[in-house]
Amino acid sequence: MMSSPAANTATATTPSPLPVDNLSTAARNGFAHRVGLFLLAGLALAPVYAVLAGDAFLLTLLTRILLFAIAATALNLILGYGGMVSFGHALYLGLGVYAAVIPAFHGIDNGLVQLLITLLGCGLIGLITGSIVLRTTGIAFIMITLAFAQMVFFLFVSLRDYGGDDGLRLATPTRIAGLDLTDPVTLYAVSFGLLCGVLFACHRLVHARFGWVLRGCKVNERRMKALGFATFRYRLAAYVLSAMICGMAGLLYANLTQFGVPSYMSWTVSGELIVMVVLGGMGTLFGPLLGALGMILTEEGLKALTEHWMIIFGPLIVVVILVSRLGLAGLLDTLGSARTGDTP
Question: Which of 94, 172, 245, 288 could form a disulfide with 265 if both were Cys (CB 3.0 to 4.6 A apart)?
Fold first, then answer.
């Protein structure tokens, strides 16, 4: 039976499916996803054990992991799903820190005011720098993001009224709804809640139209433009959103260390965030959490063994990446597939 001309026209004008990368292996196999949920359940119960055992160091260490996991998740949004290798994302972590430290220096301890400053500051800086760096690709993109971060780093070094290179102490704790964020249990609970919220939001975002376009731009931006998508606006929105999330992690990090220093914006911290994303698994939901957990715990364990821990730590990262392109998430999915007899 012959099809009608209208049907032929509809078929011819229907765009082909969006180009999608193959970074959804973890989501398809699901074992890494289940491990991530198990880790969240364990992290939810961790403060109970820490309080009963009187282990203040454990609570501080886990809070640090949570905050870096939030920052790494923010970076994963543009690096793992968007293919934008930002080597200056510590800029927004540092801006979040100073959004708490500088207002506190002037007697402003209202957490909502500090949060507003963080979101507006990181959003504006992200919008300005993103509008410039997103007009480049490859090594130029990497170097310009690094350049912007170093510019702001040296700006804060020159601010002698706020401690300059020596940094500035958090004068008063950040308070939200009467809660003192320098209290270890309170800060842990807020950090854990923020991480869960960011993970949920990212999961919803990357599986929505926005996420599909973002992943399509990573694979073939020219094709996405040919399909009629304003790719620059999608990528810029992701970049600004990532900057704001990273800034919120910095705001809480200031209450953890109770100190603000320009070195939080340095390129080494940006490198650590990239390592966490790559180590955990780029373009996977729980990859940043796995990367932050694996990197910080391994670092602390090796430091207890030897002062030359970096000689061991570096090759370990290389081995994980060589074995699995999706890092720890990929390894977990491979183990899950092998256990069930499925092909990964």
Answer: 94
Contact 283, 238 (CB under 8 A): no
pTM of the model: 0.89
Instruction: Say what the pLDDT of residue 342 is.
Output: 58
Average pLDDT over residues 156-175: 93
- Hunting for tokens 């990859």 — which residue is that? 287
Q: Are 264 and 94 in contact (CB under 8 A)?
A: yes
Taking the C-alpha atoms of 13, 14, 19 and 24 in order, what is their torsion angle to the nearest 10 degrees?
A: 180
Strands (E), 148-252: 168-169, 175-176, 179-180
**Total number of domains constituting the chain:** 1
Query: 221: domain range?
Result: 42-269
pLDDT at residue 122 tops 70: yes
Candidates 76, 78, 123, 81; CA nearest to 99 is: 123
CA–CA separation, 221 vs 214, rounded Å?
Answer: 9
Distance CA 329, CA 343 (A): 16
The token duo for 64 is 């640090």
CA neighbours closer than 13 Å in the CB half-sphere of residue 125: 24
| 3-state SS, residue 107 | coil
Q: Using alpha carbons, select from 226, 222, 117, 101 the residue that is nearest to residue 161.
A: 101
Best CA proximity match to 264, nearest among 274, 253, 256: 253
306 in any annotated domain: no
Residue 131 maps to a domain: yes
CA pair distance 287, 284, nearest whole angstrom: 5
d(CA 335, CA 317): 19
Instruction: Give the chain's count of helices (H) and strands (E).
Output: 14, 4
- Hey, what are 283's tokens? 């373009």
Amino acid present at 178: G
End-to-end CA gap in the chain = 42
